[in-house]
């Protein structure tokens, strides 16, 4: 039970931190605007999640109803988020990304 809980926390940290870390790495290594870097970050996240989904598909541990609800939410959120990010000014988007990163970091720090 403790190992399962630890594994769940690791997935949470990975998922929460992936976007922030990838966007930061892209921002440091590329001179492109934040909107295009965010789109590339989304593509990288998609590829990572597809690889994980394929692994779990063959693991026999998938709860299909929960997976379907999560897939629907991810598709809807990704579509709407991508459209919204394309309409937001880059400076505003940068502040939103930094603010969310700080808030999530603080929450995970408090949870320990």
Rg over alpha carbons: 16 Å
Number of helices: 4
What is the assembly state of the chains in this entry?
single chain
Mean pLDDT: 81
Overall morphology? globular
Give the terminus-to-terminus CA distance: 18 Å
Fraction in beta strands: under 5%
Which regions contain 5 or more consecutive residues with pLDDT less than 50? Answer: 1-10
> How much helicity do the residues have?
over 70%
Largest sheet: none
The overall strand count is: 0
SSE arrangement, N to C:
HHHH
Give the helix/strand class: mainly alpha
Description:
The protein is mainly alpha-helical. 88% of the residues lie in helices and 0% in strands. The chain has four helices and no strands. Helix 1 (2-29) runs antiparallel to helix 2 (34-57), helix 1 packs antiparallel against helix 4 and helix 2 (34-57) runs antiparallel to helix 3. The longest helix has 28 residues, at 2-29. Mean pLDDT is 81; it is low at 1-10.
What labels describe this entry?
mainly alpha, 112 residues
Please describe the topology of this protein.
Blueprint: H1 2-29, H2 34-57, H3 64-87, H4 90-111
Helix pairs in contact: 1-2, 1-4, 2-3
Task: Explain briefly what this protein structure is.
The chain is mostly helical and 112 residues long. It is built from four helices and no strands. It is globular.
């Amino acid at each position: 039970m403790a190992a399962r809980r630890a594994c769940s926390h690791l997935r949470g940290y990975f998922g929460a931190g992936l976007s922030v870390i990838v966007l930061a790495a892209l921002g440091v290594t590329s001179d492109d605007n934040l909107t295009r870097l965010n789109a590339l970050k989304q593509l990288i996240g998609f590829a990572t999640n597809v690889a994980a989904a394929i692994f779990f598909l063959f693991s026999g541990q998938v709860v299909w109803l929960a997976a379907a609800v999560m897939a629907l939410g991810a598709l809807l959120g990704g579509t709407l988020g991508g459209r919204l990010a394309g309409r937001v000014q880059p400076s505003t988007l940068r502040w939103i990304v930094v603010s969310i990163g700080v808030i999530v970091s603080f929450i995970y720090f408090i949870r320990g």
